[in-house]
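explain this.
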Amino acid sequence: MPMDKETDFVWVFNGERSSFPSGVFACLSTAEAWILHHHLSGVLTQFPVGAGAYDYAIEAGLFSPRKEAQRTPGFIGKFGCASFEHHHYEAGTAIV
């Protein structure tokens, strides 16, 4: 699946110990303002729009499946790429 040359991205916030995202934002500054306003802890990750994280990571050369288990629906459905830009927050403050 070829990716567009100009892929759009969004920022997705997952609160700590959360199974589901609690916010999706078009720009980093808006996401960080929301996180600060609510004193949230968790991870804000940049994801491509219109592509699954797994496919995008492979196409971008960020991930290469090495085991057959890494090609299964269960793996792909839970895939998160550590190489995607991401930021950690504690009580609304970025952790460097």
Notes: The longest helix spans residues 28-37.
